[in-house]
Amino acid sequence: MILTWIEQRDGNVDTISWEAVTAGRQIADELGGELVALVLGAGVDGLANEAIQRGADKAVLVNDASLAQFRLKPYAATVQHVIESHDVKAVVMGASSSGLELSAYVAAKLGVGLAADCTDVAVEGGKVVISRPALIGNLVVKVNFGEATPNMLTVRRRIFPVMEADESRRGDVVSMNAVLGAGDISTEIKGLEAAENTITLANARIIASGGRGLGGPEGFPMMQALADTLGGALGASRAAVDAGWIPYEYQVGQTGKTVQPDLYIACAISGAIQHLAGMKTSKVIVAINKDPDAPIFKYAHYGIVGDIFDYVPALTAEFKKAQK
Amino acid sequence: MKIVVLVKQTPDTAKLSKRMDGLQLSADGGPRIVNPWDEYAIEAGLVLAEKNKGSKVTALCLGKPEATEALKRAIAMGANDAVLISDSVLAQADSLVTAKVLAAAIKKIGEVDLVLAGRSSIDGNNAATAVQIAALLDMSMLSYVASIEAVEEGSITAVRAVEAGRETVSDNLPAVISVVREINEPRYPSFMKIRKATKAKIPIWGVADLGLSDGDVVPQVLWEMALPPSRNAKIDLINGTPVEAAKLLADKLMSEKVI
Questions:
Q1: In this structure, are residues A16 and A7 in contact, taking their beta carbons and an 8 Å threshold?
Q2: What is the mean pLDDT of residues B194-223?
Q3: Burial of B199 (0-12, 13-18, 19+ CB in 10 A)
Q4: With a CB-CB cutoff of 8 Å, which residues 151-180 of chain B face chain A?
Q5: Whole-angstrom Cα distance, residue B250 to residue B252?
Q6: Whole-number Cα distances in Å, A195 to A101, B72, B163
Q7: Does B16 contact A at CB distance below 8 Å?
Q8: Is the pLDDT of residue B149 over 70?
Q9: pLDDT tier at A174 (50, 70, 90 boundaries)?
Q10: Average pLDDT value for residue range A168-190
């Protein structure tokens, strides 16, 4: 069987898990065998059926107070136990913070191969083969797994589509107990300061980013207005962050976030390799820059050579009309 | 406190250009740097050592003999000493083999309270090594640490930067911590310290020195590297006044169904 982990926080599933279900479905169909969704948490019964509706054949449900919040060790112990008590060929998770940790930890406990942040999965000659970017997007690495199973892999966010829930899909839901007792867990979560923006760079469908050419922090409200009009997120280049115009959490690129939106609007960003590394696989890239020779134009699908202070407000106004 | 900082030598991605693509940069003899994320881990280790008198910071690296340069950088920043693990049998090490070897070295160093690492490497980017060391040594694991709040009486409290926000967590020592950029601003080594570091003698341990056999370090993942497909670089340049261009662009984006 193929196992996939459904990541949730307070009962809300991270979309990346439904993307992982899609990737897992593809592997199960090509390799043969069932796709089993693993739902861990407290009071998360409903998610088992949703996982089946979105493509899994069955679900394993572990409802336990000790799993209410994601903590690596109790989660890993339960995932490891499920794997050891079944014949699991591959495990697919989303390459979120927690998915990267959980997959690596369990792979080490089991002594099996790991491929993180995959952008393509395939089955060749009865074996799972994946592709993943490396060297900040300047290499593509094709990974073959050794003999030990399961093959452990995580999929990059926003690469695989989410399947619509099909309410006619039915499957068995098996309940299990958590492996570690409360007394075996040393990790204590003392609090969470929730992120301010509900639309984060990682999951945004549209991103509007500003760079050095903004000339100062006063250019960013204009960029925010553009992002808000499109229901997107605000981003920035390293130059703008290093200049102190906008906090680091907005930075896209090698030392910031890697993003993959449907639409990336780069405003007054020249397009250094380090910035391109974080956004060049966006589906559609629009560049607005005064300098017609800016490298960003080599990667953009649409370009406007001009002053962002003239063009961005005009775009915001036009998009507002279009949204209506 | 006994602190080990994991340091990786990676290709210098600032040297990527038309004349040097990803494969050329990765080839033997290409320009190398300390993995940028690891500099934050080194700095975090030095700051902790300064706060806790009698602490020692050891930089630990797995790599080719030339990776000694990365360790010298760590010593120039202020690490007390360094160890390089290098062995021809490790040329194809995957993340798990890397973790196994580093875990064995941490055991050999002995009585380590804290292992620090960068959140990932800019070349492999599996973000796995630190976590896998924690798994193999049964240490606590705190990933994506943006701030270390307290280290006391066998426990550590830190703030983790995750998708949902900033989570404050405490756990037992010994622990492995991976850090993100927000944690600090790495120091620049002084000229004097750089000179001293060039003379540092860095021991090299092989697999046998770690009590491992060749059979213990067989990779479970094999890979081939290639250049990414070049984008069909045909840009559609939109001309006109701001109002005209905005209208044209909005139409095009709507027909592409991205807005």
A1: yes
A2: 96
A3: exposed
A4: 157, 162-172
A5: 5
A6: 20, 38, 8
A7: yes
A8: yes
A9: very high
A10: 96
Q: What is the dihedral of CA A212, A213, A214, A216, to 10 degrees?
A: 60
How much of chain A, in percent, has pLDDT values that exceed 90? 93
Cβ within 8 Å, pair B135-A104: yes
- Which sign does the torsion angle of CA A143, A144, A146, A152 carry? positive
Contact A292, A274 (CB under 8 A): no
Q: Contact at 8 Å (CB) between B16 and A273?
A: yes
Give exposure, A138-150, as e/b (b: 16+ Cβ within 10 Å).
bbbbbbbbbeebb
User: What ipTM does the predicted assembly reach?
Assistant: 0.95
Chain B residues in contact with A138 (beta carbon < 8 A) = 13, 16, 21-22, 25, 227-228
- Tell me the three state secondary structure of residue A225: helix
Q: Is A244 exposed, middle or buried (0-12, 13-18, 19+ CB in 10 A)?
A: exposed
* Interface contacts A/B by beta carbons within 8 Å: 248
Amino acid at A299: Y
CB B145 within 8 A of CB B159: yes
Q: Which pLDDT band, with edges at 50, 70 and 90, does A134 fall under?
A: very high
What pLDDT score was predicted for residue A60?
Answer: 98
Write out chain B residues lying below 8 Å of A233, CB-based.
none
What pLDDT is stored for residue A324 in this prediction? 74
Pair of tokens at residue B43 = 């700095």
Which domains does chain A possess?
2-184 (3.40.50.620), 201-323 (3.40.50.1220)
Q: What is the pLDDT of residue B232?
A: 63
Q: Check: CB of residue A225 under 8 Å from CB of residue A218.
A: no
Residue-wise burial string across A165-200, b where 16 or more C-beta atoms lie within 10 A, e elsewhere: eeeeeebebeebebbbeeeebebeeeebeeeeeebb
Structural domains for chain B? 2-217 (3.40.50.620)
- Mind telling me how many Å the CA of B89 is from chain A's nearest CA? 17
